[in-house]
Amino acid sequence: MINFLQSLTLFEIIFLIIGFIGQGLFASRFIVQWLYSERKKESSIPISFWYLSIFGGIGLLIYAISRKDPVIITGQLFGIMIYTRNLILIYKKNEKNK
Known about the structure:
Low-confidence stretches: none
C-alpha cells in the first residue's frame, strides 16, 4: 500500500482524498438513519440522510470523473438527481403544511 501511495501524483492523491471523503459521507447516512429511527422507535429517514447522500454522491462523482469510470459516473449522477428530488418533495410538503 505504501508503494502504491508513493507512486501517485499530487493530483491523484487529491482525488483519492475526495473519493474517500465522499465514500465516508455516503456510508455515514446509514448510521444517521439507523440512529434517527432508533430514537423515533420507527423506521424513518431524516433530512440529513438526503444531504449526506447528495454530498457523498458528489464526492464519489468527482472521484469517478477523475478515474474516467462511466459506471460510477452514471450511477452517481442518477442518484444525486433522485436525492435532490426527495429534498424538493420534502420541502414542498413542509411549505404546504405551514
